[in-house]
Amino acid sequence: xxxxxxxxxxxxxxxxxxxxxxxxxxxxxxxxxxxxxxxxxxxxxxxxxxxxxxxxxxxxxxxxxxxxxxxxxxxxxxxxxxxxxxxxxxxxxxxxxxxxxxxxxxxxxxxxxxxxxxxxxxxxxxxxxxxxxxxxxxxxxxxxxxxxxxxxxxxxxxxxxxxxxxxxxxxxxxxxxxxxxxxxxxxxxxxxxxxxxxxxxxxxxxxxxxxxxxxxxxxxxxxxxxxxxxxxxxxxxxxxxxxxx
Length: 245
Description:
Number of helices: 4
CATH architecture of the largest domain: Roll
Shape: globular
Largest sheet: 11 strands, antiparallel
Number of strands: 11
């Protein structure tokens, strides 16, 4: 089965940063919307899985690489496709291009299926997913990183309570909310003088409404590592690479 999903977007004022560039949170939001609509196009979205299989897709890893940033009012063209199918995980990518077909940024995502009763991982062939999905070539050649930086309490930046507006259809904290928590660590001065090149985030455990998360940051040369914890549980790890403008 050859499945590609294409859609164009105009960058809105609420999606750009203080420099009128598409923000990281908005880029991940576009990626997530494209991925959801892509899975819906072959009847494997979370509404279908909940109703037919008592299951749900969860994202385990996301990577984004920026070549150029779209600006306010720009029209961009997204295309989603599958790059790998394994017994318990699926990888997909989405490319976003301009009118000249230049690639602005690319996202890569790894997803798996969890059972809604046990919250444990299920095999892909136990849910409504095409068994003959055609695989396309990766645009992002690099594998996902091994995010294993050690953090101490000295690296704690702030705490964040999970509110109802952070919760999605799967009844846990939405992936984009974690990206927002991370970006909130970055100052406007940082964003004025630096450009994010790569961002990768690993979703390790779920969090829910009312829980208090602890956001940690450790800076290196041209990169920053992040950790989000709920008490002693690791929830998210992430890495951000940047360059001076």
